[in-house]
Amino acid sequence: MSSQTQLALEQAAPDASLLSRLFAASDQIMVKKLRNNDRDWARKRSKHQAGVFIPVESRDSGFFPQLMVKEREKPGAAEIREAFFPTVWPQVGEERTSHLVHYTSKGNETHLTVLPKAAFADLLPASFLVMGRRKRHGKHFYECLTIDSGSDDFDLLRDLFGLKADFVSDVFEPDSIRSEEQGKVLDFAGEVIDAWLHGKIGTFAASRAAIPATVDLAREAQVIFMRERGLTKIDPFFLEKPGDDLRTLSRTIEWNLFRKHQHRKYAVDLVRLVMGETPYKPSPAEVIRRLIDKRPEIDALMLSAGQQRKSRAGYSYEHHIEAMLRDGGIPFEKQVILESKKRPDFILPSLAFVDSGHADAGTGLILSAKTTLRERWKQVEREMGGRSLFLTTVDENIAGNAIEDMASIGVRLVIPESLLKAKETEYAGHLNVMGFGRFCHEFVKPYLSSWK
Question: Which InterPro entries does the UniProt record give (predicted)?
């Protein structure tokens, strides 16, 4: 296993051991982001669908057993193609003979049924089904996990498979992932070894393995984004879907940059921790002894890696929003202290304007940014103080009842445009939800002249 994959496994919570075992033991793994219907059948009796929709690309990839034509009593009836195979669900302690069925009368519609309800009933929107193909007694069986989108296991899932922000479904080969990652780190590992052998590991760490400051990393991501799009600035009024672009910047481009920097930093830190600063010729026994002696420090190092990854996520989103506001010529104040001692991320155009009592003061607003919400959205109520508040996020896993609770206290959600009607989210149909583009054009642009 490559150092990058091992780092991801070490950072994960103990419950992620099932996922790491599945990754190590399977020859192929299907990962699918669940649609609402893929979960609702386990919670609502009225739902017609009784399983998980399987995309045609995954169905025909060779991952599943070959579908056979079912015998029909009615002559000339449209074909039903199906396969039965064993599935194991360790999270709920069940084994099933699951059913993959393709109803040709409905085009390519294919469903995986005969699944345990307990594995799906409590999942948040945009959670995942992970199926690993394994062998037992010479025959294939499928070990299946559901990964809640609000759990720490999701971070491990994203790291292991390199899932992009707009990922929906795919079939992966763990061996190929390991080989690709090994290729990425071998050259750097050689540099680390050479630096240690020459007694320059400290200098090397500072020059080649330091993680940039959050604002510098965000700017690096923005430069990449603009170069790929042929842009000179990130102006939300000229972007077709600025909310989607914010998600790409923070959840894909910058995330990949951060992972590269972090893996290099902790590779160097691990060498310095175990081997020390001064080069020598250790025996295999000496290396093993040092690894055992340093186990508590190694655990602490890996834990700090996971904590740093989470703490930086929020700063990333704020930096990209700030760049959009600046490039769009939108006046704002950042992290202003309110009477409630809260510090909202952005006030447009300023706190003095919003609290001025002038006729147009009501056009000003608070924009609070949270990469992930969970229960943290309740904190924004203290920021309002009678002011208009918009809460922006790239989070996909907000349940419909939470969105209704936000509406009840006057909070309006601003999200990526592609999530508004996505089948994996519960944003559709809520009047207090809008895309970032609509927010800019309807709640910002008409008032720019008076704000300035």
Answer: DNA-bd_pseudobarrel_sf, EcoRII_C_sf, Restrct_endonuc-II-like, Restrct_endonuc_II_EcoRII_C
CA distances from 380 to 102, 280, 392, 396, 443 (A): 47, 56, 11, 19, 19
Closest by Cα among 331, 350, 328, 330 to 242: 328
**Pairing state between β 411-415 and 433-435:** parallel
- Closest by CA position to 152, among listed 315, 378, 303: 303
Taking phi over 0 as left and psi of -120 to 50 as alpha, with beta for the rest, 35 belongs to beta
> What is the token pair recorded at 253?
């481009």
Structure tokens at 84: 């039965």
Task: State how far the alpha carbon of 425 is from the alpha carbons of 33, 124, 151, in Å.
Answer: 10, 9, 16
Structure tokens that stand for 102 in this block: 């393709």
Dist CA 208 CA 364 (whole Å): 45
pLDDT for 102-147, tens place per residue?
A: 999 888 889 999 999 999 999 999 999 999 999 988 899 999 999 9
Is the per-residue pLDDT at 13 higher than 70?
A: no
Q: What are phi and psi of 133, to 5 degrees?
A: -90, 120
pLDDT value, residue 5: 40
| Secondary element (H or E) of residue 310 | helix 295-327
Q: Quote the CA–CA distance of 61 and 283 in Å, as a whole number.
A: 47
42-91 pLDDT, tens digit per residue, is 987 766 667 999 999 999 999 999 999 988 777 778 899 999 999 999 99
Query: What pLDDT does residue 49 have?
Result: 65
Domains of the chain (ranges; CATH) run 3-174 (2.40.330.30), 198-327 (no CATH), 333-451 (3.40.91.80)
pLDDT in tens, 270-298: 888 888 888 888 888 888 888 888 788 87
**In sequence order, which ranges of 328-409 are alpha helices (DSSP H)?**
351-354, 381-384, 400-408
CA distance 446 to 220: 32
d(CA 194, CA 173): 32
